[in-house]
Each structure stands twice: as structure tokens, then as C-alpha cells.
Records
---
Amino acid sequence: MNMKANEPWVYLCTVEDIPRLGSRVVERSGGNIAVFRTGDDRVFALLDRCPHKAGPLSQGIVHGETVTCPLHSWNIDLSSGEAKAPDTGCARRFPVKVEGGEVFLGLS
Amino acid sequence: MLPNSKPRLVVVGNGMAGIRTLEELLTIAPDMYDITVFGAEPHPNYNRILLSPVLAGEQTFNDIVLNPVSWYEAAGITLHLGKHIDRIDRVHRKVIAADGTEAPYDRLLLATGSMPFILPIPGKDLNGVISYRDIADTEAMIEAAKVKRHAVVIGGGLLGLEAANGLKLRGMEVTVVHLGDWLLERQLDPTAGKLLQQSLEERGLSFMLGKSTAEIVGNEAGECTAVRFKDGETVAADLVVMAVGIRPNTSLAEASGLYCNRGVVVSDALQTYDPRIYAVGECVSHRGIAYGLVAPLFEQAKVCANHLARFGIGRYKGSVLSTKLKVTGIDLFSAGDFMGGDATEEIVLSDPAGGVYKKLVIKDDQLVGACLYGDTADGAWYFKLLKEGRKLGELRDHIMFGESSVGDVGVQGQSRAMAMQDSDEVCGCNGVCKGTIVKAIKEKGLFTVDDVKKHTKAASSCGSCTGLVEQILMNTVGGSFQESPKTKAMCGCTDHTHAEVRQAIREHKLLTHAAVYEFLEWRTPNGCATCRPAVNYYLISTWPHEAVDDPQSRFVNERVHANIQKDGTFSVIPQMKGGVTNASELRRIADVADKYHIPMVKVTGGQRIDLLGVKKEDLVSVWADLGMNSGHAYGKSIRTVKTCVGSEFCRFGTQNSTQMGIDLETMLANMWSPHKVKLAVSGCPRNCAEAGIKDVGVIAVDSGWELYVGGNGGIKTEVAQFLVKVKTAEEVKEFSGAFLQLYREEAYYLDRTVHYIDRVGLEHIKRRVVDDADSRRALYERLLYSLEGLPDPWAARIKGAQAREFIPLKVLA
């Protein structure tokens, strides 16, 4: 992943701290962030707020590269934050990188 | 990939099947191929089903165009109109048109459709003898109707009748000649056929049935003048329309050496014997059947596109058909074995004066066929019963009077979609009106209930309006749209049904999600939010104490053991067996409510206390402070056993219903099930605990206990059915436990007990639970074994299980 100079990377946790096909919540003023881990151990971060009715995406079921919102079952793409068709909407993405099994979040 | 290195896909046939396949392909793999389409007709793809309204003068050709030329341009497709492909050079992989145009291919799709069958009789080539298959035939008929007077239509099938009706509307005298003894003999039984004939005669059409045509007589100018029959009779005709049937157009395929047998023979992947060549539509013979209806063609298109896109998944397994037709404004519907036979029974409603006739064919207490004339509103419902093969049981008394007689809306409910206004609400959960659904179906070209669900959200929540949506779909998609059944696959990740998945888990002792997905060749690496919870349930219910219960495959409520609310907080309901509590518990609840600032404390319908608005990170401490077990008020699991006070205090009580309820709730603690399970125990037939609408209802009488099963107070109120009367409290536990274990082993995930009993029949339950003591004891023992040693989930989490689930991460600055 490209690292921009102005993105301060902060250490979050190890990959193992996030359950596979699950997520962890990062508490933050201005809205919590959901950090997801896929079946093949890739890590993504989205604002923990479904574009539909603000459901906590962190509580959804993760499958493939998608999370299903627990409130009304919208499917949100983890890499883009976009709702899958025919629903439309987008959850804000946060840059995230994994180095040596450690997860860093880009908070600019 | 460079543009010029794309593989080339050539489509021969510019009709509904071929172009539908391209549409499906472009959706899933938009840039994969350089596509070239050859169409023998000089028109872009149009809706062949709607030729009749064009003939009748109700629509113009432009109205029925499905893909205008601009669509091909926008999709980057090279379109050759009016070019007939003569030859496929399979060695050099190119097609050659009659005018010499050549197109090389890497993949070839044949969608050459069908040809009208022309009777091999003298005079078939005379001027004025035409078939009815495409827009050119339709225009020829429109022209002929301007100058000619006597039309004879040979063939009393759907096409023939539509041609006859159109020509009549254009002012001709029309006689329909038919070899069979009644009209539409493949769609209607004799009675309905006669009714149709009567009605059409009233509109001025003439009929000659049981007539075999010998020749068409012509004059010196080579024009037809009459039709002569084998019995010597003749009838004047200056226009003859041959509509005796269609046959797959296989001439190109046969000339190219592809194996054909009443159609181009294809595999379940729609592949011909030449692996580079695929075929779809009416030209195809799949498992020995050539389909002539649009719904199967569209199913083929979907599967074929998937293979062209090299996804290599999806199989076409053939279609079960129902036919819904509108012939000259008369609604007709038939499905299954509507003729009946020796081993079948019939229920018939006949009102010739009112123009209504209905016949239902029943075999072994299942609906196997239906033929409806005049009133087809319940067609979709009958077709559903037929597909499901559901035991009719008590439904038999009402089935003829339609869905509305069994309840207007409900779990399987649908009311009369036709009678609804556009502003009427169809889906109460998502607030979707009929007009919205109709608009989406028309504008987005939706053909399945699943599509409608996705685009409109109708029927996507509780599902009680699914039948209604199906009806609206049937009524909207077109007069002669044929609905074919949804494949009952578990979800888009697999073609396997719930039954097949569970069977595989049992027979091959699959113990993990990964094993299931690998063994059954799931299309997705780790399933989806629909199949994962179902597979998880089948695993843990089939192999208790052995299979791996995967928390990530459970809905959030079952993962965190509390019920998520719309603002992301949770509700906490502690166990309160039989609704009995005490001062100490109430004091702790009050203290917790204060300490954690619980915004609402509410008594539930199940005689418990609900603490609403608990933050996720507080859950474990709330449980610890409460010092009570989980009430499981959030899961597909045992919920609560509601009780009345019973003989201990009540002057009417006959047994100790409260203790019975507490015993049952103790026995069933921590039980996972296909859906939620609620019980109630009443101390006398006054039934204050409302046992009549519970999955298992127990009612005390002086001489023992009555057990009722399959009740439901939810989406559609269902009254529980009487199962058995027993004498002792121990028997109550054994019989209700055995019933619940049978439900756990046989019901599909998300079926309540009522749906399960509907599917298998109460007789089946009685055989396994009441009549056969060995079977009952075995079921009961399996239930107790699965529940043995299961920890209370709250206690386990207080001890530290799944801890990170509840602890948010902190960012270290």
C-alpha cells in the first residue's frame, strides 16, 4: 500500500486481535471505526455507520470482501465502502496497513 | 488486457434467448468478449410474445422492441441484421453468412430459435398460405386482412387462437381448424377447452374440431381458395395460417455436424457437443426437452452467461412449468398434471354462466395439477402448493376457494393483487406500494421475486407478502408470461437446497464450515450472511458436542447474547423461569438499571423483564451484576415458557402449571433451534397462558395434560394443533421434548414449527412422537444429549469467553 507522507499511521492491534471473518471497534470522537478481517487475513477499516440507517457495521457478518449490516442486511463492500447494488450509499473508508502482523490505521 | 486480444464471442440468432444471454453476460463480465451478433431478421431484438397485440392492432412494432439498435452500440456489440448464417466452419472457427460475411469466433452461441411446423400437404406453397412466427408474418397477415375475406387458421393452440382473434378484429371471417377434440389441449382439460370455444364463438369465430387437413386448394394464379379435409368437406379460404406447432431450428447446427435430436443437444451448462459452441433457447434440446416458453429460456440464459464468463458454476436442471395465458381477454391457467387419471381425485368448481371453471387434481393428499378458466387469481398459490408438494390436510376443505379463504395475508399469504390500487401497500415492513413494484418490474425488466426483493425491498423483511409480490409479478410481466419455480437453493452461494446441505453434513460427518463449503463446492470462499447462520445451525444440531460452533457465522444477537436495537445498543432479558421471580432478583435488576443508566425497563410478552438500551461494552458487567442466566430472548433458540399460576393458588387450576413451566424451561435451557421456540403451560382450559398460539402449548385438565403444537402468534396467527393427551408431568417433558427434537432435526433453518408441520404433515409428527414409543424415546434422548453440559452463555462470558468481542480498541497516540 502506498504510504503518503502526511498520513500519520497509528498502531492499532495485531491481526490476530481481530477475529477472522469478524471485526473490532475503534472508539473515536466523531464516530467509531470498524476494523474488519477477511477470511484470507486482509484488513479493512470503515466508519462504523451503515449509509442506510446508521447501523453499526462492526456487528455484521463478514463474508468474502463484504459485510452485511445487522439492522437491515445491506451489503457493504469492505474495500470501497460502497453499498452493493441495488442499494446505493457509501460508508467512509479509512486507510489501513498491515506490517509484520501489526495493523496500523491512517488517521489524517 | 489489450482490446484486440479479447476473445471473440459470436451469437447466431438475435432473439429473446440470445440477447438475454448477452445481457446476463454483460452484467457479470462486461469487458470480457468482443461480441458480434447475427440476426436473420432485419430488426433488433423484439418481444415475440407481444406479436398478438401487434396483429390485433393494440400495439405497434416499436412498442415491442426490447433492445433498440442504440443498445447494441452502447454495449460495443457488432450487429449484423438481415444476415442469415449458412455455415459454421468449426475447423477454422468462423461463421459464414449467405452474403459472404465471415466472423471468426473463440466462443459461439447458437440461439436460432424455432421454425413453424408446416404440414406436408399439397398446396402448402400456394400464395396466401403463411405461418405465424415473426414480425414479417404478422405484417403479412395485417396486409392480407385488408384485401381478403375468408381466413382459415389451422391449429387450435395458443398461437392459432391469437392469430384467429387478431384477424377477426381486423374484419375477416375466421374459421379455426383443429385436429384435437378441444382447444388448447396441452394447456386445458376438455371442459375448459369447450368453455373457451363457446366464448370465442360468441365473439364470432367459427370452429371445426377433430378435422384433419388433406390439402389446400388453389386457383390458376397460384392463390389459395379453400381447405379440403380428409373427410371430403371443404371450406373457403383466401388466407390460410398454419399454426400447428413449432420445431427447433437446427438446420445450421446439423449442417455443421453438431449432435441434434429434436433440438441442439446441450449439457446442463448449455454446452453443445463442440465445447466451443453453446446454445440456448427454443433451438435447444436439454435432457430431451425443447422448451417454447420464455421463463425457461431466461433461466438457460443465466446459466449459459455464467459459463461464457468462465465462472463455471451454475447448472440448468430443467424447468417445471405452469402456464398463465390470456386469450382474447379470457384468463387461463394450468400447471402440473391437470388432466388427472386413475390414481387421482378431482375437486371441480363449474359456473359456465359466470364464465368460471376450476379443476384441482389431487393425489396422495397433495395437489398435483390445476386448470383454471376465467378466474386465475389463485394460480400462483396453487402452483406454489404444487411445487412444494405440501400435504393438504385440512386445507383440502378450503383449497378450491383460494388463498383468501385461508386468510388474506399471512406467512404464505397473498390477496388478490389484481384488485389492488397502485397506492395500496403490499409490503408493510418496508412500506412498498403496488405501484412501486409494478414500476420497478416494468422499468428494470425484473422477472423473479428475488429481483423484486432486491430492487424494491418488498418481501425482503418478514416475507409475509411474498405470495402477493409473486402475483403482482405474474400479472405485470405480460399476458403470456410463464412463471417457473425458483430453484430452492439455500442462497446464491450454492445450488444445493437446505435438505441437501443437511443430508451431506449428516452422511459425511462434516464438522466445520470449511468442510461443508469444500465438500458441496460452495461458489464463495466463506458463504454469505444468508447461508452461514443456516449451515452453523445444521452443523451444531446434527453433531452436538462435535461440530464447531462458529461465532462469526452467527447473527450479532446470537454472537453477543443480547438483542441489537435500532441505535446499536442492546436489550438484556434475564431468564425468569415460568415468569416467577423474587425480591432479591428484582432488587438486583433495579440496581443494574440505576448503575448503567438503563433508559427503559419493560415487562415483555413472555413474562420477563427487559432492560433496553444497554451499551455493548457494558453487557458483560450488566450480566455479572444481575447474577441471572441468559433468557435467550435474542436467538433462534428456546425463548420462554409462559405460565399461569395454576392449582397452587388459582381456584380453577387443575394442575401445577407454574412448576410444569419451570421444569420445561429448565430442561430446554440453551437449546438452539431452526427458529425461535416459545412454550406455554396453562393450568386449566381457560388457558390464561395463551398456550393455543405457542410452538408447544400445554393445557392442564383434571385427568392430565393436553399437548398442542405448531401455534404461532406472530406474522400470521396460527392456532396450535392437538398432538396428544398424557397423564404425567414426566410424559409432558418426554413428548414435548421429542417433538422439539424432531423439529430441530427436520425443519429447515428459519422455519417456525407451523411451517415445518405444514410441510411434513401432522400425521408424520404423530407417527414419530405419539404412535412409536421407541422413536419418541430416541428423539427425547438425543435432545437431552445435545443439551447436556451446555454452559449458560452469560456465565461463560463473565468468566472471559469471547472477551475481545466486547472490548473496543483504543488508539495509542
Note: DSSP finds no helices and ten strands in chain A.
---
Amino acid sequence: MAVVLFLSVFLIAACGLIYELIAGTLASYLLGDSVLQFSTVIGSYLFAMGIGSWLSRFLDKALVSRFITIELMVGLLGGFSSTILFMAFTYTHAFQFLLYGMVIAIGILVGLEIPLLMRILRERFNFKELVANVLTFDYLGALGASLLFPLILVPKLGLVRSAILFGLINAGVALWSTFLFRAHLPSPIIQRAASIAVVLVLCGGLATADYITDTADAALYSDEVIFAKTTPYQRMVVTKWKQDYRLYLNSHLQFSSRDEYRYHESLVHPGLASVAGARHALVLGGGDGLAVREMLKYPGLQTITMVDLDPEMTRQFSTHPLLVELNSGSLKTSKLKIINADAFPWLEKDNSLFDFVVVDFPDPNNYSLGKLYTTAFYRLLRHHVAQRGVVVVQSTSPMFARKSFWCINETMKQAGFKTYPFHVYVPSFGEWGYVLGALEDWKPPTTLPAGLKFLTPANVASLFEFPPDLAPVAVEANRLNDQTLVRYYEHEWREIVR
Amino acid sequence: MKPTRREFGASALVGLGAKSDRKITGGFVYESQERGHRLRDKARFATPTERVKIPVVIVGGGVAGLSAAWRFQKRGFHDFVILEMEDAAGGNARSGENTVSAYPWAAHYLPVPDHNEVLVRELCQELGLLLPDGTWNERWLCHSPQERLFLHGRWQEGIEPSIGLTKNDAGQYRHFEERIAEWHASGAFRIPMDHGLDQAAAKARALDQITMGEWMRREGLYSPYLKWFIDYSTRDDYGTHMEDISAWAGLHYFAARAPEDKGPLTWPDGNGWIVKRLLAKLAPFVRTQSMVYRIQQQRKTWRILTEKTLYDADFVVFAAPTHFASWLVDPAPPRWPIDSAPWMTANLTLDRWPANHGVEYAWDNVIYNSPSLGYVVATHQNVAMHQDRTVWTYYWALADGSPTDQRRILLGGDWAWWKEKILTDLERAHPDIRQCVSHIDIFRIGHAMPRPVPGTIFHPERLRRARLQGSLVYANCDLSALSLFEEAQSRGVSAADYVLRNISSTGTR
């Protein structure tokens, strides 16, 4: 009997130390400066334990049932501590506040444990023996935990699962206590049921530890998530609200099904309709197949080559029923050849010529993407364009990122294109811009395919007019060795995004 | 935009799911100390079995030797061989390659040459780096972002410390820049250095009498950030602390070039890229695994011995490190007065990138107050947007104390010991580095580059040896006491021109 009791002391001591180590480790990982993080976490934790021990004097009745409640609270709070802290770091700016809040809350509860347990055990042992044994097992538990943590738990389980596992041990001690101290409990069944419930919740947490990123998405998107997939290249999420489907890549909106026709008609038709007898087209990016859908309105087009980095993206948009409905099955056409490759190195190796090229990359918000908007890239691209061919580049918003837009225009110019910038209003995006590049003088088309929802032969030319607030500004071209565009872009969107 | 914080949080979640240190493979590469030391210790070598008569022998296939050959070939002269001790030519510009990337083993970039550097520009034109319209090929100019520094727990852009500067620090930076601009304008510092030496006034000569550290004190420059930056630069370029190096050499690094913002030129394989292209034309002249162990002066010719072949030549271009001459040449020249700095270079293969926060990965990544020089991302010039694996070239100049002691440390540590040194250093900026690295190859270079301590630049023996005279001429860049591609090329070409002038006049051709 005595051994079993002191084993509980050993276990709860181990749990207590583990939570403290987890908080310290997490803070060091996420905030850096491990000396500072560990010192402050250990300090506040020990201090909170002191508060707990002091508070224990105010608990006079029903000690066993209180002890069980405390164990369950520690189990839940400690068990989910790393999950909560990760989420807090990812989605809030209150990480430090929550960190110390949790450390103090857990510390107080853990500080209550030993004094309560000693009082519960008081009648069974003489005081001298009790103090000696409880403290011995307390310290032994601490040793066990501190060795287990770096050697086995962090390497094998990671922080999220380690915390939950030790939460389960706390809940286990609670459950076990409902049997051990049966005699002291007025209604052990209730306590037992509560313990089992906590065990189940924690088991659920353990089973879904890998899906925390997924549940986190729900918090990020205001609409219902109907499809989500993480590929080696990006995270794809499709949301639905009434009849509005939206695709997000790495949480950046790519299109809304309600108005994407405006974006894609403008991306394709002013350029493609202007190239008489166009036979070969190239799409760089655009794995959603929406630009291809528009291209298929030209029966004269013989081949479409799509170079998109992510095989999962093109696979999903070729096979997933819902996504296929959005692009009208455009990726299944026999005219289309899909190449899953990085566009810049692909262009370096390939030497085919195209009559029409769509460049539909994500906005240049980092240096890796910025490479795809440089003079070097456009020079290379120029060598793939037939003499009377045309390229159209999605060029972010001339409203929100005016310098970035005109920088792309300037960069294409310096790479040897005659440029014809234009813009269109896409409600879900705002005012959006494109740069059309040609090797010869170019004029907007006078005829368009039938059945377009937005463009007409009459309104195409008007897209090329810029009101004063979107008018050109002086900018530097974007080069591989001096990526001005990424700086413009970062600076401009920082002004817009809250 | 905002998601960086979220993305980072998510990546931290994935990263922390389960972690354990990976098994890291690797070993030492190019271990040639033994061969070199056999020369030093005058060990016995096999007698050559064949005899070849050839007008010119170039000893050493580094950039100096290859540049001499490049010049010969361009002048239509083909009666020469290059004897290279190692399995491959290239010297300090050698490179390696694995399934992830090519990578350099030492020199990894070429500053964009200014208008005075005629030879370097000629080579750049030939290699398609300098385009007919006078612009530089953007593909091989170092891509953005070029440099970053890990300072006070985070990365900043550029390696000149800029976080936490006081007004006084900033003032000292300006003071230093003004001095550099003055020295640049004086014309005493040029590349090639000989162009400046001719016009060096007594004031410039006096710089070779003191250390860079002493010069800083005399200028009243004591900002810890500036001192770190200067010391980093002297370690990076000379493998030597600023308290040990000649102020002339220290200032040459800053004052010799016109302020230039477009460069440098760089490639995954570093200057190995240039070497490969030179070898595409010159390989037929190169004899690898040909260690010269004796160069004997005959009545009018030279007898050059390798373990396979004996060469009878009229002229020798000695482009190997100059200190070797004391062991090889008979009669032996006076002792070479310039010591060399030991280095360790490692190429780390990473199966994934360490989690990164804030400033993006740059080409050159430096850790403040680290004993190492940081690392260069070998895949940086790759234009692919997505790269899951990478190679980092990590540099460490062993500059503390005497080079002899440092060489003992360099060769004393086994691979596992050096591996720990490297990972422990990188861990300061990348706590998860051990989960990312899968392979580390280490190159220990006992004599990596000349070490220009005070008195070196104007040392009579250096000046004498650098003069082209007789029928054995020296060409290694250590004659300049500066380990620069431009110096090696200039010395090699000058030696070739000298040989061409004299070989026709003596009529041996």
C-alpha cells in the first residue's frame, strides 16, 4: 500500500517538472534566448508553487475529492499546455501573456498537490516517515522527468504529445485515487466518471496531435473549409460560403468563384485574341486550370503547355469533382501538357517558342518568388516568345501596390518587351493589374470569343487607361542581384494589411 | 504580408512533432598534407622513367598557373605543360559536387572588376560574364539577398553590424569610410597591387610597419561593432586577426576597389566555375598527379623531376605556393619570408532548411562573434523557387595565435571533433541544425593563403622574388601577399608574357 501511495507522489512530481520543462523549451524555441526563457519560466513556476502551497491552508474539507479535482485540472491544463501555446504563438500576439499565465496556473495547482497529499496521508504514517518519504519520491520524480524529457520525450514524441502523455498520467493518478481513497469519497462514481472523461479528452488530443495544423485552419478562415491539403510546396485550402468557393494557397486568396471570371478573362483574352492564328500557348503557374479554361475558347490553339511546380495542385484540379467543376474540366483536355517543374530552370532548359504566354505566379512577397519577376527571367522568357507573340503577366494591384505594379512593367521593358499595362476591378481582390508584353507594336483585339461574362470588344481598350491615382510612378527595375520589387511590395502591403 | 508569423508557427509545430539528431556522414577530403610534408622533409622519391624535352614547364595548376597557360594559348604558344600535384587542377578555386549542388572548396566569388582590371575584364568577356553592351550577366551576379548577420539573437540584412549602434558607433563607421575614400583616391591601393605600389608614398609605406589594430587605435576607432567588422574582414580575406595583420594589407581590402554595389560574381561551385571553363580549353596541357620534387638548374636549362617524368625545359613558371621553392629548387633560393594561414572549409549537405525567422537566407550568412566566418549557401544562385535540399560552404580561418600552433590544432582534431565544432557554432543561429544536416565533408588546408603581417609588403625578399628575371620566374598570388584571383591571374599572365619575350630572343624555340 505504502509503495503505491508514494508512487503517486513520484508520478505527480514528474508531471509537474515536465510541464515546467515544456514551457521553458517552447519559450526558448519560439522566442530564442534560452537562458532568459528558462530562468523566467522556472522562477515563475516555483513562485506559483509557493502560492499553491500557501493556498492549501484554506482547503479544510473533502481533501481527497479536492485532490482528485486538482489532478484532473493539472492533467487538462498541463496536457494541453504545449498545444495551447503553439496556437497562441501562431494566431495571437499574446503568446508571452499566455505563457506566463499558464505557467502560473499550472504552478499553483502543482503547488497544492503535495501539501494536500501529505495531509491525506497524515493518518497512515508517522510524520517523520511521511515527510522523508514524500520528499524522497518527490525529488526522485523530478530526476526521472528531467532525464526522460531531453533523452526520450522530446526526440521521440515531441512537445505536443509529451505534454498530453503527462496530462494522462495526472488523470490516471486521479482515477487511481478514486479507488485508493474510496473510503474518503462520498460518491466515488462521479469522480471516477470525471476522471474517465478527462482521460478520453486527452486520448483524443493524443490521437489528433498531428492534425493540430488542420484544426488551426478553421480559425484562420471565416468560411467553412471544404478541402485542405498540405503539399511539399504549399498549403491548399478551399472554402465555401453559399455558392462562393475560394482557393487559398498558403493563406493567400487565389480566387473567388463569384468573380474569378473577371480575373481570368482579362488574363487571357486581351492577349490571346490579339494574336491571329495563335497555335501554341504556355501557362506558367495557373495550376487551377482557370486560365486554361479560357484558352480553350480558341479552337485554333493546338497545344497548351502548363508549367506548375506542384503536382498535387494540378492533380487535385484534374480529379477532385468540386475543383473540376470550377475549371470546367479544363485540365483534362488532350491539348494540354502538364509539366510539374520550377518555371525558371525549366525555361533555361526548354527551347520551344510560344505564340501566347500567361505568367500567373503568386505575388512577389519573398526573394524566391521575386526571382520570377526579374529582368533575367523576362529576358529568358522573351526567347520563348514567337515574333508576333504576346505574354501577359499577373502584376499585383496597381492600387495597393502601385510601385510594385509599375516595377514589373519597368522590368519587362528593360528585358526588351514593349509593354502594355492594364487593370481590371475584381471585387474579391480589388483593383488588379497585368502587364502585357510584345516584341512588336501591339493593339488591343477587336474581336473576342463569344460567351464572355465581362470583356467585350468595346470595353477591352478601356482596360489600358489608367486614372491619375494608378498612373505610373518612377521605379527601379527588379534584378536578380537587386530585388527592388520585393522591397516595394513588402513596404506597400504593410501599409494596407492590418 | 502577414502570414510569416503564422507560417513560422506552423512550421515550428511540424518541426517539433518528433525530433531526433540525424546520423551525419562525411569525412576529410583532399588530404595532401603528407605529400607536401614529404617534400619538406626531403623524403626519397622514385626516379622518373621517361624524359620529355619541352620549352616551358608551369609548376602548379591553380589560378596563377592556369592564367599563364591561358595567356600562352591566346598568344599562340603551345609548347608547355602544367604540372599539378593533386588529382585535379584549380588550387584554391577547386570545387566539388554532389546530388544536391556543386560547391566551392575555397575561393567562391570574384568581385566585379573595375575599368583598371583589364585582364579580368578580358576573361569575363570570354566567359560571357561581361556582355557586349557593357553590362554584367545578371545570372551570375550575386542574387538578392546577398549578406546577413546574426546579431543579438536575430538576423539583420548586410554584415556590417547595424542593430544596437550608438550615435558614436555610427560616427566611427563614417570616420572609417572617409579614411578609406581618401586612401582609395590616393592611388596607393590598386588591383593588381603592383600598380599602386609604384605610386605608394612614404605615408602608405609606413602602413606596412604597423598592424591594422594599431592603425585603428591611432585613428581613434574603438567602436566594438566596427572592430568586429574589421577583424571579420581581415580573417575572411587573410585568415589573420586585425591585431596581427599589416595595416597596409588591411586597408588594401577596403581601399583598392571603387565602391561597387552590383557584385560580386558568384556561382554554385564558386571560382571552380571559372576553372572549369579555363580547363575546357587548357586540359590538354595539364598533367595531374604530377608532383614536382626537384627543379635542378643545368647549364642553360632546368631539369624538373616528377616520379613519372623528367622534363628538360628552358623556362620554369613557378606558380605553386612560393614557399615550396625552398624545398624544390636547386640551388635553393633564400627562405621565403611570408607565413601562411591555416583554414578549415566544410561543405554541409542539408536535407531540409533550418527554420528561419525574419530576414531570409542570404548568400553569405555570418554569425557575430563566432570564431568561424559563417557559411555561404551554395545553392543561392539556383533560380528554382523551391529547393528542399541545399549545400552550405562553411569557412573557418584558424587565426588565433601562431599559425604553427593552429596547424597542429587543424590536423589534430579528427572529423568528429571538427563536426562538433561546426554544429555547435551553427547552433547559435540555427537551433535545429542537427536535424537538417546529413553529410559534412571537411577540407583542412594547412597553408591556405599568405599571411601579410607587418613588414611583409615591402619585404626585400618579396620584392626581389616578384621581379621577373632569369629563366625561373615566380607567379603564385602569394608573391602579392594577397590571396586574390586578380593577383594570381595578373602574376600568371605577367610571367607568361615575360617568358614569351625572352624565349624568342634567346632563340630556343
Note: Chain A has a mean pLDDT of 89.
